[in-house]
Structure formats: structure tokens, C-alpha cells
Amino acid sequence: MSRRRVVITGLGTVNPIALNVPEYWRGLLAGKNGIAPITLFDTAVFKVHFGGEVKNFNPDPVVDAKSVRRLDRFTQFAVVAAAEAIQDCGLDFAKEDAFRCGCILGSGIGGMDSFEEGHKTYSERGPGRLNPFLISKMIANSASGNISIKWGLRGPNTTVSTACSSAAHALGDAMHAIRHGLADVMVSGGTEAAITPLGLGGFIACRALSERNDDPAHASRPFDKDRDGFVMGEGAGILVLEEYERAKARGAKIYAEIAGIGNTADAYHITAPHEDGIGAAEAMRQAVRDAGWNFEEVQYINAHGTSTGLGDIAETKAVKKVFGDHAKKLMISSTKSMVGHLLGASGGVEAIACALSLKHGFVHPTINLQHPDPECDLDYVPNTAREVRVKRILSNSFGFGGHNCSVAFGSV
Question: In terms of CATH architecture, what is 262-410?
């Protein structure tokens, strides 16, 4: 079978700056900041008191009150975002061949809140009082499973868990399912809800987070010399992928093509990136080649850009290795400067940003970039969005464990 093209026909999100895609896009272009003091629990005993919470989230009417009690927050995010994406794409799955439609999602952690709640119940009241839905709430594949049940998707259905590259890898797997004829339509992306006492405490313990408690709005500052760690975020970014000829024939709104993917490992350290960015560089090379592009055609990179000391420098080095002199001509920006780090969901919300850039001709800024790091000396689109027509984009996602993923998005 010849290689089939894959396009994006639906978008849906809930994240720290928005509860839907139009609001998200407006927020990105305005440089809206979603970082604020944590309200989900009392942070008094923690060194960090802020994060990127999804604010004013209400799963109704997509998830009814009975189902809410059976779904962890990360699954609720995914189902609500999927509902928006499916409505946006205009498909009625009841009229589709169910075995040609699937769902592949990413989540780095899964139902952390349900895990903590279950442990508390066990410790205080014993095993006989555990919630019968504990396991189905906390397992990482709960989101993809519940989406497939709600919309009757009987095609490929898996969950990818590669830390902060989970959603990007999920998109790559979904692309391959369509490209190679295993499916015609795939719901894909990522979801995460790890702003919990154990989640926050764990990331503090491994010294990954910013501790800028006196100024949380400026804590996520990728590529800035005063950065001191990433900011935890939560939410979901869900996309509908579809075979191009099929989408075109039905008159679908097409945002962009998902044209290629690169997938490598650093084989270096469980949390730190390789200091020279060699794995990240090779992932970008693979994505460009898989898309069939020349390297000079790439105009914009949605960076992993976490606001960590080592990570931002390693990513900058990787870009220079891949693009040489062309690196100075690239626009690069970090969505995480506004929403924080959504861990396994990051690649999903960032893929939506890329698709909207291709559709509407704007590139969103990296906010809080006030004092550029001398070692990060490329064009990071500081603080102000740009109106510019782009046709070739890479989106980078790198995860603990040394996982690297780069996805190529192109205009159609």
C-alpha cells in the first residue's frame, strides 16, 4: 500500500489559559499567562505554591454527574477536549465504520489524584472501603478507553506513556495507523492532571520546579538566564487525524498535515537531557526527512522549552546541530511559557498551537523572556506574537528517561 497522507480536521483542549480552542488561540497570541497559586489543595508545607491549573473546569454536560464520580480528573479533561475536537471535525461516528476509527492518547502519569485518594482510604479505613472504581480511574489508559466507549471507536486503541513526550508519540502512532491503512480516522493527543500533593512533592524532591513563589506569573521563562525550573501544568490537547483524500472528499475543514515524526532516545540519564542535545537533534532530523522536506524549508519550531537550566541550552544546541546557519533564520517559541509544563499532555496542546499557526498565519510568543541567556542565542519570538505565514513546522517533546520526539506539521 502506498503511503497515505494524514491531516488534522478537529481540535479540542482544556488547559491553564482556556477551556476551548478559540479561547486558547486568543490567549496564545495575547501572551496570556495561566500560572497562579495552586487552589486544588493546601500547599503550605511545600516549597512551591503555584502551577498551571485548569480554572473553572466543569465537565458537564459532556460527562454526566454519575460518570464524573467514576472518572479521574485527567480522563475528564480528555473526554471534554475530545468532545470539542469531534464536534469540530464534523464527523458522526455512529455513521462511520467503527473498526476504521480509533483512539491513541498519551499520559505520563495517569490518575494520580485517584491513586492518592485510594491510598488515603486504605490507610485510614482499610481495604474493604476502597472505591470499586479505583483501578479503572487511575490506570493511564482510562482516557483512551473511555473515549472509545463514548464514541464507539473500535479501531486501534492504545495509550503511550513516555513521560513528557507521551502526547507527541501518541500523535506519531496515530499518524502511522492512518498512513499505513490500519485506520481512516484517529482521535489522538494527550491528557494529564498531576497537580496533586504527591505529584507536586515528587517534582520538588527531584529539584525540577521553579520556586519563584513571590512572582509566579514570571516563573515559566524559557531561554531566559533567570529561569530556575519548570512550572507544573495540567490539561488536555486532543486532535482528530484523518486520511487526506477522505477528508477532502467530504469537504472537511483541514487545519494542517501531520507530515512526519522522529523518535529517538538519549540513552544518557533518567532525568537530565544529553548536554549536547544529540538525541533531540536526531529526532528533528528524522522528522524532517520523514516529511520529505529540505531542512531550509522549516520556518518555525514549537520548542520543548521547559524553562530548565539544562534543557533549554541542550535544545538550542540541538537546533544548531540540525540546521546550521539556517538556525538563525528560524522562529522558535515555547507554549510552556504561558501554560506551564503539562507533562504527558504537552505535545497535544502544542500540536494544536502548530496547527493554528499554519491555518491562521501567526506565531505565538515566548513570554517572560526578559534577559536572554547568552547560551540561548536564537530567535525565540520574545513576548509578542508575529503575523507571518508559515508552511513548515516542527514541534519538539522530550521526556524523562531520555525520550525524544519531533513532529513535522505542514500546510495543505
Answer: 3-Layer(aba) Sandwich (3.40)
